[in-house]
Amino acid sequence: MLRFPCLVLLVVATCLSIAGCGGPAAPPAGDAATDSTASGDGTAGSEPAGDADAAADQPSGPFVLGDLLDKFDPPPLAEIDESAGWIDRPVLDGEARMRELLAEDGPPELTAEQALKLRNDSPENNAKIAAAMGRLAPEDGRGIDYDATVVRHVTGDLKSSNPVMASSVTEAEFGSLTGIGLITFDRNFDYFAIKGSVAAWQTSQDRLMDKIVMRDDLTWSDGKPITAHDVEFTFKVIMSSAVPIPAVRQGTDLLKYVKAYDDHTLVFFHKESLATNTPNMLFPIIPKHAYADTLADDPMMTRSKQHSALEDAPVVGGPYKLTKRVRNQEFVLERRDDYFTHNGKQVRPKPYVKRVRVKVIEDSNTALLALKEGDIDEMQLRAEEWVNKTSGDDFYKRNTKVSGTEWTEFHFLWNLESQYFSDKRVRQAMAYAVDYDELMKTVCLGLYEQSRGNYHPASWMFPKDGPTPYKQDLDKAEDLLAEAGWTDSDGDGVLDKEIDGRRVPFRFTLLTYQTESGRQAATLMKNCLDQIGVICDVKPMEFTVLVQQATDHKFDGMMGGWGAGADPATNRNIFGTGQNRNYGQYSNPEVDKLFDAGEREFDPEKRAEIYGKIHNILWEDQPYTWLFYRNGFFAFNKKLRGYNFSPRGPYSYSPGFESIFVPAAAP
Question: What is the pLDDT of residues 146-184, one digit of tens each?
Fold first, then answer.
């Protein structure tokens, strides 16, 4: 089971709803994230680089595997074992770990059958429903419909089935079901090696090495064994300049080397002793035998005949394989018998669901209709849907709904290289311009909390002296704009400024999602700015196009959102100078130094102080106008069981979606 440690770009779909690893968030929906930017349910992930730009970045010389790595000769394993002072690390079954955590919560007040008779119209009922429906499957497997099909919903299509090219929530979740992983984390962000693929995990006393012994009963979907050599090969692919990696290189590039000493023994060599060394090891894995002979001719892994075939029929190592793919409509995953069996014996738990159909429905109203009619089994809900469209018999006939806290924020993202937003005072003026009362009441319908910056107030890294939320103050906004040189010099009602010898009116385009809530939030901003002489043209865009505009820095302002990473250090990818998800091209040397310090500090309280400082500096610099924090609001068909929430949503931790099951006698 593959888990992406990076932030996920969210899709503005929920209250305005947009979703893995930031960039423009997908429309708030009920993610990816993305950075949906939320989950494939209104969240999207970071944006992949376009083919043209990626091609332009390709080195002109011959392809060299791992050319981004410094020269390093790994010492013999016997020498390492003698001096490392290995410390054993946990190797756990994700579902067993989840059972422990649920036991700490105590037994649910209601049975699932009783909970399904409730309507989620109060915090009390929400807690009862969440506890009852979150109970895991019987450990003996009795009463489970192992032939069940679950139909999931995403707002954005799978752009690539190659896990090293993943950058959206849809792709991250695809990878979590089809990919083979070595290390993951639970809902509390505590790391452990995955018992299904790892026999042993050890860390050296100086924290500069990790040794993993892989199990010998792992196979790719084409029948070839999964070995340590696949992991070393993938690491070198990620660290090849000619391969246009959109997201997973972050963190992986802090590894000095990954060495396969035999088919099962791996040693990860770290450049430094960092608090983030474990998440840096969480990169996806691709089969060496499928790519080694073709990579040099097509390092983009998209253009050759062989790679096109792998895109449509990928060789995977996880519990599910891709069996059908209709672009922009759906893709279908089927359980792999050879994942949980080996040489005729069961060696891993059998996945509860036989088939996962993933339907791409960008329009939220259409998706909700499909949910009510039973055509999809789950979706993330926007605020309006939660409040106004999921309270009647037509919804509760087949479904229930649950909310859980997520560390997800939405914002307007400014391009600091734009002639309009390079000055901090202008960006602060944008923050003062927003009518937050109207935003929270009309767009978010009172369900969300006004944002106080990039880290969530419930998180351990939020500063103790955290900032006070902005309140609309148009006079203050006008004063700041005037200080930055934006005045109405010709009396036409529009602010202007002389730039490079010409008079430039303050008129810019704000990109947003094609969702009702995305349009509403952007239009509210337009109306606010109209009052202070700034013309804001709202331009809704299809999400993949929006992501590409962000990747190429071809925008003045855009709507976005980010979900939580497994560690606050992942925010470097968004706010660090020159980082590939720093779509607004923000740069502050002090922030860069603090990110360095945060990775080198192991004391939890001192780490929290460092990231708290980053939070406050970002709030002062306002590279984003932070709008609100969005909880996770999801609808589930009554037949589904086993869903639980973490700060990253119901699926982005172990066991995530793999805990979902359907009772044999489902309603």
Answer: 999 999 999 889 989 999 998 777 898 899 999 999 999
Q: Is 464 exposed, middle or buried (0-12, 13-18, 19+ CB in 10 A)?
A: exposed
Show the CA angle centred on residue 206, arms to residues 204 and 212, nearest 5°: 20
Distances (CA, A) of 51 to 175, 299, 300: 22, 12, 8
- CB of 613 closer than 8 Å to CB of 434: no
Whole-number Å distance between alpha carbons of 532 and 528: 7
Q: Which H helix or E strand runs over 258? A: strand 255-260
Exposed/middle/buried for 146, CB within 10 Å: 0-12, 13-18, 19+? middle
The rounded distance, in Å, linking the Cα atoms of 248 and 4 is 8
Top-tier CATH class for 413-629: alpha beta
What's the maximum distance between 2 C-alpha atoms anywhere in the chain?
82
Q: Where are the alpha helices (DSSP H) in 375-496?
A: 383-384, 393-396, 424-433, 436-438, 474-483
Judged against a pLDDT cut of 70, whether residue 57 lies above it is answered with no
562 contacts 409 by C-beta, under 8 angstroms = yes
What is the model's pLDDT at position 11?
A: 34
Angle at 152 between CA 25 and CA 560, to 5 degrees: 5
pTM for this one? Answer: 0.83
Query: What crossing angle do the helices spanning 474-483 and 424-433 adopt, rounded to 10°?
Result: 170
Strand 149-154 to strand 355-360: parallel, antiparallel, or no bridges (unpaired)? parallel
> How many whole angstroms separate alpha carbon 485 and alpha carbon 259?
57
Tell me how far CA of residue 267 lies from CA of 78, 155, 504, in angstroms: 12, 39, 57
What angle (nearest 5°) sits at the alpha carbon of residue 8, between those of residues 4 and 9? 150
Of residues 43 and 192, the one with the higher pLDDT is 192
Tell me the C-alpha distance between 656 and 3, whole Å: 10
How far apart are alpha carbons 315 and 340 in whole angstroms?
16
pLDDT of residue 51: 34
Is residue 590 exposed (0-12), middle (13-18) or buried (19+ Cβ within 10 Å)?
exposed
Distance (Å, rounded) from C-alpha 49 to C-alpha 245?
Answer: 8
Q: Measure the CA–CA gap between 428 and 480, rounded to whole angstroms.
A: 7
497 SS3 class: strand
Contact 585, 575 (CB under 8 A): no
| Rounded Cα–Cα distance for residues 497 and 97 (Å) | 60
CA–CA distance, 140 with 132 (Å, rounded to integer): 19
* Alpha-carbon distance values, 524 to 317, 378, 440, 602 (Å): 47, 30, 11, 43
Q: Is the pLDDT of residue 35 over 60?
A: no
Residues 6+ apart with CB under 8 A from 202: 84, 86, 87, 88, 89, 210, 211
Is residue 169 within 8 A of residue 3, CB to CB? The reply is no
- Please name the residue that has the structure tokens 């070595």: 182
User: Residue 351, preceding bond cis, omega within 30 degrees?
Assistant: no
Please give the order of strands across the beta sheet that includes 399-404.
378-380, 632-637, 399-404
Q: φ, ψ for residue 265 (rounded to 5)?
A: -105, 125
* Rounded Cα–Cα distance for residues 579 and 594 (Å): 15
Residue 387 DSSP label: I
Residue 110's CB: how many other CB atoms inside 10 A?
17
Q: What residue spans define the domains of the chain?
A: 413-629
